[in-house]
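User: Can you predict the 3D structure for this chain?
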Amino acid sequence: MTFILSIDDFVITFFVSGPGSTTLPLYIYSMMRHGSPMVINSLTTVFIIVTFILIFFGQKIMEANK
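Assistant: Here is the predicted structure, written as structure tokens:
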């Protein structure tokens, strides 16, 4: 489900963005096409770590409010 929502965000951004504007999904897409695998892997790792940290703290806050 998350993959489908992510692809939807990219498609919307791809069609709505104007010339000269670069959003993060378009930047990652252009890096994938022109070949910067180390940067893409680093960004992916950072996003995963930040997501896990946010989920961890969110769960701790929810447990504290019970």
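The two ends are 29 Å apart (CA to CA). The mean pLDDT is 78.
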